[in-house]
Amino acid sequence: MMGATEDTGGDGVGGESGGTTGGKYVEPGGEFTRDQRYIATRITADGRDGYPVEPGRYRLAVSYACPWANRMIIVRRLLGLEEVLPMAVAGPTHDARSWTFDLDPGGRDPVLGIERLQEAYFARFPGYDRGITVPAIVDVPTGQVVTNDYAQMTLDLSTEWTAYHREGAPELYPERLRDEIDDINAVVFREVNNGVYRCGFAGSQEAYESAYRRLFDQLDRLSERLAGQRYLVGDTITEADVRLFTTLARFDAVYHGHFKCNRSKLTEMPVLWAYARDLFQTPGFGDTIDFDHIKRHYYEVHRDINPTGVVPLGPDLANWLTPHGREALGGRPFGDGTPPPPPPPAERIDPTHTPLR
Hints:
Elements: E1 17-18, E2 58-63, H1 67-79, E3 87-90, H2 118-124, E4 132-133, E5 136-139, E6 144-147, H3 150-159, H4 178-193, H5 195-200, H6 205-226, H7 239-249, H8 251-255, H9 270-280, H10 291-301
Helix pairs in contact: 1-3, 1-7, 4-6, 4-7, 6-9, 7-9
């Protein structure tokens, strides 16, 4: 039952959802509850929802700032689907209506011809009243959004788009390990991926302290699990590693300070820090991380948490490239597959935004 163990959906209150810069993200007096109402239409090999897998038919809308979109970018890279599923990249912040394609000439996506992702949502659902979230997949011929159910989207790239995987693509969701992957994904989503948001958007001291303890209790348990094995499930990279990595990559840059997840920095948790560096230095992971976009999004958009909109200059990023020593635990990053080639020129991260040179 693919994806059933994860509370699905991108972030309906910032992070991944278009909305008003300087808007309200914290409800005073309570704990953060994620809006999990998403478009569950699937793109499948047999087209049973009306959207068959077809090379070039769809466009993947993302922001490098967003951890949920980052997961799609990584899986797409590892599987070699760049040409089959082209990508539209929104800027790190958004206007009052939704994510905008302000990085493109004229402020419009060159294929979809739209300024705001909202236009693709409204093309299919006029008056759509939920979060305009990334990642989302848009049907190019109609200009209509197909899905924003990000948890299912990455699994479908692994299981429904197999005819177009590159030679040597890894098995990120192997059938024999799916139950274990689903179980760990559910815990990581609840306590870590979403846990940092429960800290950052807590509306009371009590809600914050509860979220804080749950987050670090789970990070400690993950440290114990990873102390003796290189990857979360099995001896190769799987979907589970992708889902944990994108939160860890943002931990010191935004979650530690901005979201008050400050018991320890990632760099002060030896096992998780080495694990994160191991993945960061693996092709397909670190070359999808844009720290400039990440910091600008969180610090500029969440104005009720950071009223000035000032973006910190730190932390120092060079330590992401230091030796991690995880090879001693064995494991084969891509199993019987091979590393992906470098990203296409148009998708290479600005070298001033990342320690990768």
